[in-house]
Amino acid sequence: MGISLSYAGASVPWGVVACSTSRDRWSVRLSLTDLMRWLYHLIMFIPHPHALEQGVFLARYDRFIARVNLNGQEVDAHCVNTGRMEGLIKPGSVAWLSRAPEGSQRKLRYTLELLEVDGITIGANTQTPNRLAEALVQARLIPGLRRYSTLKREVRYAERSRIDLLLQQGGRRHFVEVKNCHLVYPDGGAYFPDSVSERATEHLQALARQVREGHRATVLFIVQRNDARAVRPSDLHDPAFAKAARDAAEAGVRFRAAAFNPTAAGFGYLGLLPVQLRQRNIARLQAYAEPLRAFSGWQRRGKRQAS
């Protein structure tokens, strides 16, 4: 099913509002996906907790510091991201920062929230997905996560594990692990992770054990950009995680993904994405990754980090 807006044979963007007389013949054609995303955007928009300030991204230092030109002054902002941020470390990109509240004892007054890279706005703060995921769950927008009576955050449940969201109904527990995803390749796949993550692999193994004990478990990927068509585990960046994802699925762990459109005002919900667990062509992924290598990682005072 497709819908596009056309007049006298000429195509018109579906979002354009136009007037016509009774003699004019109009037809409307719009893809079902675009229509659903537009409706979802109207249904759910999650604003930033604080207003953002626009600057220019300069560099990333020591993994957790982003240098940004803000109103002509260079400032250091907290970069809340442990990964390589593949393809996002482009000096000159637009950066959006949040400011710490007055009276805060934080050493860094700013936090890097968004980056605009090659015309796409991308969420850079890996703590944000937990807030977005909780909003989706509370709104009952995720299939399989609608039936619960209580919701708890950051609950310890195993020797080295803490679950992001714990849903309970009666004596049944549902463990929800939230994963941030920012890396999208030209094939439309959003790949996770963008570097080796032993911790993420351990999370999947712990979830599989919970399912074997009779509970439910779901991995919920949050894609903080608007151009992904599916979410996939990256056999290129972390084959152990990719295998663990397939093993977890066989054990009964469910995988879901949701996409958001980040803006300076907040996050518009775009809807669900399919999660595709099968192994992908490694050579093709390497070809996608190679041009982004120079725009990944971070610098250690005077030396480029090659991780």
Please describe what this structure looks like.
- This protein has 307 residues and is of the alpha+beta class.
- The protein has three domains: 43 residues, no CATH class; 74 residues, OB fold (Dihydrolipoamide Acetyltransferase, E2P), CATH 2.40.50; 172 residues, Trna Endonuclease, Chain: A, domain 1.
- The chain contains five helices and 21 strands.
- The strands form five sheets. It has a seven-stranded mixed beta sheet with strand order 4-19-18-16-13-12-11, sandwiched between helices.
- Helix 3 packs parallel to helix 4.
- It is globular and about 55 Å long.
- The termini are far apart.
- The N terminus is likely disordered.
Keywords:
globular, 307 residues, 3 domains, OB fold (Dihydrolipoamide Acetyltransferase, E2P), Trna Endonuclease, Chain: A, domain 1, 7-stranded mixed β-sheet
